[in-house]
Amino acid sequence: MAKWLVKSEPDECGIDDFAADPQSVIPWDGVRNYQARNFLRQMAEGDEVFLYHSSCRHIGVAGIVTVVGAPYPDTAQFDPHSPYFDPKSSPEDPRWTAVDMRYVGTLPSLVSLATLKSAPELADLPLVNKGSRLSVMPVREPEWQAILRLAE
DNA sequence: GCCAACGTTGGC
DNA sequence: GCCAACGTTGGC
């Protein structure tokens, strides 16, 4: 069972939106970057995912969600009224992928970006590298454990 | 609001 | 295939 980290702006969809209805399944769509998309496609039912809050007041890893079902074509890419519309994509050959996520838990405390950067175990995590804009990335087991420990 | 770093586009 | 221009991301 693989582990991941995804970025989101809590104004759009943060851990509180998941926690508001723990049973609900929220589509993770709108990813329009090939590297991030390729990671989305590798996700599978039951995978666990850190939710990272970006571009906000309290930046950092806030909680955990889980992958529900299998990745599927992001429907927004076909919708001309969606901000995520991609005229170059077609239902016959979908370019972008979405997955469904469900709430698992909120961390006891937010692990701030500064804390993440100061942890030697996390040096290889794309998130902490300067200028990294990757919004979906794999997290290795030792990295996962390190972040959990920092949240205690 | 600023701006550095990045990915993508498009002309050549 | 190169690379300049552009739009976006995201921390500060």
UniProtKB/TrEMBL annotation:
Short name of one Pfam family: EVE
InterPro entries linked: 5hmC_binding, EVE_domain, PUA-like_sf, THYN1-like_EVE
Domain EVE residue range list: 3-149
CDD domains in the record: EVE (cd21133)
PANTHER family named in the record: THYMOCYTE NUCLEAR PROTEIN 1
Protein name, per record: Predicted RNA-binding protein, contains PUA-like domain
